[in-house]
Amino acid sequence: MQLFHACEFHVSAALYPQARHRLHARCANHDHRMNDNTTNPHIMLLAGEASGDAHAAEVATHLQQSRPGIRLSGMGSIEMKKAGVDVYYDSAGIAVMGIVEVLKHWGEIKRAMALVRQHIETTRPDLLILVDYPEFNLKMARHAKSLGIRVLFYISPQVWAWRPKRIHKIGASIDHMAVLFKFETQYYERANIPVTFVGHPLVDKVKISDQAELLRDRLQIPADHRVVGLFPGSRRSELARLLPVMLDTAQNMLQQDAKLSFVLPVAASLDDSAIREQIEQAGVTIHLTRDNIYDVIKNCHAIVSCSGTVTLEIALLGVPMCVIYRMSWLSYQIISRLITIDHISLVNIVGDGHIVEEMLQSDANGGNIAQEMFRLMNDGDYRDKVVEGLHRVKHNLGEGHGSERMAELALSMLD
After folding, report:
1. Widest Cα–Cα separation across the chain
2. Which of 60, 135, 318, 364 meets the CB 3.0–4.6 Å disulfide criterion with 324?
């Protein structure tokens, strides 16, 4: 989940059946369930990008533990498949954000919408769980509601950041909202929309392995080198816009300090061939790794990160960072006029203040980023202040067990 991702726009004007058709569909759905001889309930989960895929997989695991034999299907990717979900559409190809980016992939998004609608209609799940990816998933929510299917939305659209009035349309499309941050509940309670604070699943998930100390040796990083993390994101569009900036940052930093090593974790959903090609063209040495990302984070002295959920993972491990983002000129011009808050990174939003530097668009360049990274590594007082702010973020994310509580909420809606 991230702010700019939440600012995706409506890319179609799909119309849905009127009230009389909804009544007919509910009756048909009732007949379908009365004639269904299976005793195992069916939950469909829809996730449209990598972080949502991971969150959905965690919930799926707890659902299966609590209700053995439960049927799980949906749209997702690698993590949901690993968790035993019957994934009928791989969402890796539609994990894009921004107006221009969405338009470029509109054909594939439209095909995904049609396929998901068809599966909802033909399988009639007992519960539809929508994970983030708001513009796509809210369309599916409206369609499911027209068929009399209960809808649980997990990871709230960020109504506190932009377009706050849409909360009423959201409420009309769902039966219940599950939020990750406690402060979000007030927005739904004021609008009389059923809401539950389940907490952030990252609190339980972010842990280093017992192999973390061996990572440097595996990557053959010299003992006297400081390690800088480059985290361009898990979407192809992010790689295209942010990786060149990060490689330029590495060049700038190496000109000032040769005793630096750079690591770049590659998301499981990505092919690293395109990344390697960009690195070769830049002429810098970057250690690519598919190791446990938390081991990678913990071995870094400082990190350059895209804006997104990964910034919370870095914060939970207490590693100083700066956050950068670039998108198309048109997308930025529109989105920047819609945002109603001062920060775009979840670290600063959850920490309720300016904790880490944010560099957007042309400000996100190799020179500026290199300067901030050296400050984080060399200025002890400044580094300590940032780390103190990251501890505040960790406190604000709650006690943990978020995925378990989410699974309990889903089963309570079934029962």
Report:
1. 72
2. 364
Q: What is the mean pLDDT of residues 58-77?
A: 97
Residues 6+ apart with CB under 8 A from 385: none
Work out the number of other CB atoms within 10 angstroms of the CB of residue 214.
13
pLDDT over 90 (residue 67): yes
Q: What is the pLDDT of residues 116-145, one digit of tens each?
A: 999 999 999 999 999 999 989 999 999 999
Distances (CA, A) of 61 to 72, 77, 388: 10, 15, 34
> Looking up tokens 């989105």, which residue turns up?
335
Could you read off the pLDDT of 308-340 as tens digits, one per residue?
889 999 999 999 999 998 877 777 776 666 666
User: What are the extents of the domains in the chain?
Assistant: 3-201+400-414, 212-396
Number of other CB atoms surrounding residue 391 within 10 Å: 14
Please tell me the distance from the alpha carbon of residue 20 to that of residue 61, in angstroms, as a whole number. 38
What does residue 35 show for φ and ψ, rounded to 5 degrees? -90, 0
Task: Say what the pTM is.
Answer: 0.70
For 3-201+400-414, the fitting CATH number among 1.20.210.10, 3.40.50.720, 2.120.10.30, 3.40.50.2000 is 3.40.50.2000
**What is the structure's pLDDT at 49?**
84
Between β-strands 195-197 and 176-179, what pairing exists: parallel, antiparallel or unpaired? parallel
- Cβ of 316: how many Cβ atoms within 10 Å? 21
| Lookup: tokens for 294 | 């938390």
